[in-house]
Amino acid sequence: MGQNWTKQIEEQYEQSLAAQKAQIKAAYDQNTSAYQKKLNEAAVQYGQLKNEAYVNNALAERTRRENIANMGLSGAGSTSQTLQQRHTAALLGTLGDAARQQQDYADNVNLALANLSEKYGADLTSAEASNAAQRNEALIKQSQWQADYDMDWRKMLHDEQQATFEQAYSLYLKRLITTAQFQAMTGVSLRR
Question: Who contacts 169 (Cβ-Cβ below 8 Å, separation ≥6)?
């Protein structure tokens, strides 16, 4: 009987742990998915910044060329070349800034993912430890209950056997039953 209770307790806590693990895993997957989505969106967002830099550079270059055309190649070519170099430097600076920002963002998201992974592992360990402690407590209580029950049962049987023995012995002493009847009632053989 005690083994059935132990098995039931073990199964109950195994099911509870499995449910806790599933819940922790679902939260981890949901959070991981959200961070992965942010990484994917970052490529698009910072790609737009880079595209804007190219467009702004193309517009600046167009304006520079129109200004040169309006000046009619009046010897301001060195100024034009200086403006072109400035535009190119600005473009490269903007592209570099966008790339650094994207890398910083990706690093932060990857750090958050690593922290999330650590938290997931810690949550699993915590759930397992808590579940094991609760299971052990339940098993100890059940074991104690079983021991008390068994002791009460043995005492009751002993008391019944004692009462049967005393009753049979009293009848035997009064010569109301035979030695064979006494032995049949008590399981004890008497010496003559």
Answer: 182, 186
